[in-house]
Amino acid sequence: MNRREVLTWFGGALLLCGTIGTKAQTAKGVRRIGFLGPSGRPPSEFLQRYWAPTGELGWVEGQNLIIERRYAGGNAELLQRYAEELVRLNVELIVTNGTPATIAARNATTRIPIVMYSAGDPVLSGLVASLARPGGNVTGFSIVARELDAKRLELLQELLPTAQRVAVLIDPTNPYNETAREERERVYRSLGVQPIFVGAAATSELENAVSEAARRRAQALIVPVDNLFWTNRVLLMRIALEHRLPTIVGHRDILEAGGLLSLAIDEAEQNRALAYFVDKILQGANPADLPVQQPSKLLLSINLKTAKTLSITIPHSLLLRADEVIR
Q1: pLDDT tens digits for 106-156?
Q2: C-alpha R_g of the chain
Q3: What are the backbone angles phi and psi of residue 161, rounded to the nearest 5°?
Q4: Phi and psi at residue 176, in whole multiples of 5°?
Q5: What is the mean pLDDT of residues 65-76?
Q6: Which of 297, 294, 296, 251 is nearest to 121 (CA)?
């Protein structure tokens, strides 16, 4: 082999190595994360809204991001098994939806970062040391449920000043509801309202729960944010309307299904928060050093179609403050 042939062969080898190196680098650049949800898989349009801000920060599923999704379908045991499965897959972080999913993930690992898409009160639930300094492997977005409870009740009193018996729908499998019950009772009684807690842990229990509220002479029903209630929102609102129960709900989608009034966090803000935490952690940030975020604003929405069905007149003061009115 002469000198020119040697140089040609050597150059080709370098080119081949460079190509292989580039491919290896591309493969290495694909990151894998997990998602853990307590209910069923949501509609595709919801998922698109959910992950859009993450894509805007450069993390695009199917290109440089793989998302291992696990949905427990309301099965608490399956939720824990799926959390452990994601840990065995050695994903780089786990996104959780709701307090039960976050607890399941935290029970499965103290090593892999956990990003809460939502959690009622992560301090009260023992998930973080404090909002400013989480201190462990969990951080993310808190929906400040206790504060929302009080604000929804205040809106209800403005809407129905004579209401003194108010039912609160809870999912007893959500640990947050047990830890927060005493505080909820204190808030309600401080505002002169008697709370009536009715529980439903599965779709099959929703009708009995709402019927129980009606039997106990509740004058309104508060439906907080919960994956079970969101998934079954059409059924739930139909049952409430059959009992002519005005509903104050925690998500705009539940309002559209037949709720009367909603006070909810801004979903777009929540999705941006998710993107922020995923981006920071994939770039090497420690979740212990990332403060838990809270909503900067709450959105008030009113369903006038439901008000007409229930023969309720919405005060002008509420209509003026509403961010959205469904007519």
Answers
A1: 999 999 999 999 998 899 899 999 999 999 999 999 987 777 888 999 999
A2: 24
A3: -60, -25
A4: -60, -40
A5: 94
A6: 294
